[in-house]
């Protein structure tokens, strides 16, 4: 594919969109490679084919077939897309993980508490930097508009996403909107989401390996023609097919624990942006009323 003219290479976003569009038709092995690329964009340019294959649990030939499936002569040509985008940028989350793994292997049992804290702070900073760099302003504005127009807002997030779901419900309850936390208390996900209807919005927060309960609630919302805002980490997630709007977050991680800092930040920004819009609407109504008098 355009071996002699890298200027004609697609951007990473264009390539990943093509992959996302074809994802459901890919064989299982190629889906694994697609997911790896989405999760490790910044390190793909230096990853060896054999290492990617090992991480995906496939034969190296599957990685080559994946590249050819999307018009490249081999995997090294596909890597050029990522080299063009990421050369010279700061290390990605994957590179950071490799550094942490080496640190643990080199100094088992010798890390002080302060050192652990600083590694987590660095991971959080890395995630926030990536959120700042990759935030889709158009999608964010669409999400705020959707919430502004919603009759009811339902929020679902399970396991590690549950604290974020709880927070955004708490924040949104400071607006005039009717907000519902789909907690699943007593196993009642079905009962709590069954009233969702057209005109409502479901906010679903989920990251790999993607909660089955969250997927169920999204299917119900889709069936009842409610709009959906998905906050997730990949365009290839099973949530994507039911999303009206998506916002993507890649958290930094340390010692195999992912932060929630960037996701909380994004949700706080959603709340503030919505509250601002709603207050403007109130102010405009007051102004109109003043003119009527």
From TrEMBL:
Keywords: DNA-binding, Glycolysis, Transcription, Transcription regulation. Signal peptide: none annotated. Residues 143-280 form the SIS domain. InterPro entries: Homeodomain-like_sf, HTH_RpiR, RpiR-like, RpiR-like_SIS, SIS_dom, SIS_dom_sf, WH-like_DNA-bd_sf. One of its GO terms (biological process) is glycolytic process. One of its GO terms (molecular function) is carbohydrate derivative binding. Coiled coil: none annotated. Residues 13-89 form the HTH rpiR-type domain. PANTHER family: GLUCOKINASE (PTHR30514), TRANSCRIPTIONAL REGULATOR (PTHR30514:SF20). This is MurR/RpiR family transcriptional regulator.
């Amino acid at each position: 594919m355009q071996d002699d003219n890298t200027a004609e290479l697609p951007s990473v976003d264009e390539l990943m969109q093509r992959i996302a569009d074809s994802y459901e038709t890919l064989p299982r092995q190629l889906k694994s490679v697609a997911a790896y690329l989405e999760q490790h964009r910044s390190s793909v340019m230096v990853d060896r084919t054999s290492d990617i294959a090992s991480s995906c649990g496939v034969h190296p030939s599957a990685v080559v077939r994946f590249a050819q499936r999307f018009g490249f002569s081999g995997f090294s040509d596909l890597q050029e897309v990522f080299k063009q985008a990421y050369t010279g940028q700061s290390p990605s989350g994957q590179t950071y993980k490799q550094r942490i793994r080496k640190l643990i292997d080199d100094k088992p049992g010798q890390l002080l508490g302060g050192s652990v804290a600083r590694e987590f702070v660095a991971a959080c900073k890395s995630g926030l930097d990536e959120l700042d760099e990759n935030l889709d302003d158009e999608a964010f504005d669409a999400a705020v508009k959707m919430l502004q127009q919603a009759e009811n807002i339902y929020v679902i997030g399970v396991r590690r996403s549950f604290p974020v779901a709880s927070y955004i419900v708490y924040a949104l309850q400071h607006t005039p909107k009717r907000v519902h936390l789909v907690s699943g208390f007593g196993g009642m996900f079905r009962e709590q989401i069954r009233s969702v209807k057209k005109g409502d919005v479901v906010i679903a927060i989920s990251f790999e390996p993607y909660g089955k309960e969250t997927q169920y609630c999204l299917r119900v919302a889709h069936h009842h023609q409610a709009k959906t805002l998905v906050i997730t980490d990949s365009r290839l997630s099973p949530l994507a097919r039911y999303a009206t709007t998506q916002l993507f977050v890649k958290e930094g991680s340390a010692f195999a624990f992912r932060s929630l800092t960037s996701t909380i930040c994004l949700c706080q920004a959603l709340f503030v942006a919505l509250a601002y819009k709603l207050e403007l609407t109130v102010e405009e109504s007051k102004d109109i009323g003043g003119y009527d008098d």
